[in-house]
């Protein structure tokens, strides 16, 4: 991960010192050099900064912000483009000459060649900003899943962006004002949904969106990254064996394309199917033993380390195992505000911070298996919501329904809210909720209502998977 930050200021009140302070605040994201661009024009001041973590082409000439050889385009970029070598080959056929071996330069030359259409061609996780001097505009772009973080603030005469919220708080224009409605939603879901953050004046850049800002006027507009949907085989025409072969083919392609870097790469390994699949495919497709990392717990009921060790032994990986005890967990808990800029309702944050500290001695890139549960239905909450929904759809006599509600209200208040929720998705949201609506009313002084009821037509587990892929995965787990 790199750290990016910058601004457009039509009031000329933001200085280069503010830009450097913003870059300082996200220095931990880099470690391989800083680049700063600060330019004062007649109508605006522009600042771009990058704290680089080099994983592809480690040379000095690849430092960011990177400017094209023609001088018309500059980029500050965080992420990895998995298909950059194929795009590079295509661009070379068009006569493009490259001066680095980075995926960063490929993005720049692709944009130079195809404009906004270039972003449809990128297969990767990315947050990037391009300064187009020919069109006198700034483009701010984030991948469709939302794998790479990007925050922004926009007010009259001022726009700023950053990889973390703290980068934006270094600009004096932006005030720390709590978004109470977002906090209410957070206590329901355990994450800030959509473009919301804990602050009124700071937002997440929408995933899969290209924001174009005219540097002269400050006006902006958004466009989605649009891709042609691939033609997929009709499942009914395939045998079970053919379906399994196709899944293995897609998983292999997906996992191997992420195994791209000029630095050591490792993989997280738990006792689950998802991480075991990632490790197995990586190891199957290379002769050298891959490095795998497992975190164990001293409490037996939580400890997956023994299962992970058996998987590692079977796959013959170079396995590293660490244990987290209560005291270390408490110390890590105290340090989490230094890592996150707003509350995070995912308890695995403690474990991931611990394993990252240990693994960084051996590797610079660590592959995980996030998204496996959302694609393959790994959560028990799906089954629970579907069972509640099936029960509710049955023709229950009014007196029995009243009796059930009374019993639930007395003994299982959370189940009562699940029972009363309309439709499968709302039942699923109630099953997954951290606090019931009644508890939320007692918890928050101002009692703002959490706006989490939805009228989406959700009828199957597939719809629930898509919902989590678009919400729970990017807004919580990918943090």
Describe this structure in words.
The protein is globular. It has 479 residues and is of the alpha+beta class. Helix 8 (273-284) links the parallel strand 13 (265-268) and strand 14. The chain has 3 domains: 3-224, 4-Layer Sandwich (Glutamine Phosphoribosylpyrophosphate, subunit 1, domain 1), CATH 3.60.20.10; 235-369, 3-Layer(aba) Sandwich (Rossmann fold); 380-475, no CATH class. The two termini are 12 Å apart. The longest helix is centred in the middle third of the chain and has 18 residues, at 240-257. The mean pLDDT is 91. The strands form 3 sheets. The protein has a 6-stranded antiparallel sheet with strand order 2-3-1-9-8-10. It has a 6-stranded antiparallel sheet with strand order 4-5-6-7-11-12, with helices on one face. It is 40% helix and 19% strand.
> What quaternary form is this?
single chain
In the predicted model, the low-confidence regions spanning at least 5 consecutive residues are: none
Please compute the radius of gyration using only Cα atoms: 24 Å
- Per DSSP E runs of 2 or more residues, the count of β-strands stands at 16
What is the makeup of the main sheet?
A: 6 strands, antiparallel
Chain-averaged pLDDT: 91
Top CATH class of the largest domain: Alpha Beta
Helices, by number, come to 19
Global geometry: globular
Question: Can you summarize this structure?
Answer:
Helix content is 40%, strand content 19%. The protein has helices at residues 16-25, 84-93, 103-114, 118-121, 165-168, 180-189, 240-257, 273-284, 305-315, 326-339, 348-359, 372-376, 380-393, 398-411, 413-420, 423-432, 437-443, 461-470, 472-477, and strands spanning 3-9, 34-40, 45-51, 66-67, 73-81, 124-132, 137-142, 151-155, 158-162, 203-204, 209-214, 220-224, 265-268, 291-297, 318-324, 365-367. It has a six-stranded antiparallel β-sheet. Strands 4-5-6-7-11-12 form a six-stranded antiparallel β-sheet, covered by helices on one side.
């Amino acid at each position: 991960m790199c750290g990016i930050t910058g601004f457009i200021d039509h009031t000329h009140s933001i200085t280069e010192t503010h830009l450097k302070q913003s870059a300082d605040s996200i220095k931990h994201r880099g470690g391989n050099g800083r680049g700063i661009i600060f330019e004062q024009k007649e109508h605006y001041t522009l600042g771009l900064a990058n704290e680089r973590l080099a994983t592809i082409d480690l040379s000095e000439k690849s430092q960011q912000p990177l400017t094209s050889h023609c001088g018309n385009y500059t980029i500050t970029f965080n992420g990895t483009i998995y298909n950059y070598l194929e795009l590079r080959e295509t661009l070379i056929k068009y006569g493009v000459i490259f001066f680095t071996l980075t995926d960063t330069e490929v993005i720049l030359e692709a944009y130079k060649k195809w404009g906004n259409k270039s972003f449809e061609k990128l297969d990767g996780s990315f947050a990037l900003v391009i300064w187009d001097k020919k069109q006198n505009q700034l483009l701010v772009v984030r991948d469709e899943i939302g794998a790479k973080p990007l925050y922004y603030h926009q007010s009259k005469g001022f726009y700023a962006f950053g990889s973390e919220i703290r980068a934006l708080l270094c600009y004096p224009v932006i005030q720390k004002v709590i978004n109470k409605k977002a906090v209410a939603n957070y206590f329901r879901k355990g994450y800030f949904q959509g473009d919301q953050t804990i602050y009124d004046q700071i937002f997440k850049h929408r995933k899969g969106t290209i924001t174009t800002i005219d540097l002269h006027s400050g006006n902006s507009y958004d466009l989605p990254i649009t891709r042609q949907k691939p033609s997929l085989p009709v499942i009914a025409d395939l045998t079970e064996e053919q379906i399994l072969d196709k899944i293995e083919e897609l998983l292999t392609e997906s996992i191997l394309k992420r195994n791209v870097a000029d630095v050591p790469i490792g993989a997280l390994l738990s006792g689950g199917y998802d991480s075991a699949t990632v490790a197995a495919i990586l190891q199957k497709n290379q002769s050298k033993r891959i490095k795998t990392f497992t975190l164990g717990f001293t409490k037996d009921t939580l400890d997956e380390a023994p299962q992970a060790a058996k998987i590692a032994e079977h796959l013959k990986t170079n396995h590293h195992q660490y244990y987290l005890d209560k005291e270390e967990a408490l110390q890590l808990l105290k340090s989490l505000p230094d890592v996150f800029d707003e509350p995070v309702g995912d308890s695995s944050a403690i474990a991931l911070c611990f394993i990252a500290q240990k693994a960084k001695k051996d590797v610079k890139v660590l592959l995980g298996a996030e998204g496996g549960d959302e694609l393959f239905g790994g959560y028990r909450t799906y089954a629970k919501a579907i069972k509640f929904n099936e029960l509710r759809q049955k023709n229950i006599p009014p007196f029995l329904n009243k009796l059930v509600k009374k019993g639930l209200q007395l003994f299982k208040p959370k189940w009562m809210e699940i029972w009363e929720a309309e439709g499968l998705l709302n039942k699923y949201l109630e099953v997954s909720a951290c606090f019931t609506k009644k508890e939320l009313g007692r918890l928050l002084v101002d009692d703002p209502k959490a706006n989490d009821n939805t009228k989406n037509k959700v009828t199957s587990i597939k719809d629930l998977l898509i919902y989590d892929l678009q919400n729970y995965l990017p807004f919580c787990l990918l943090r």
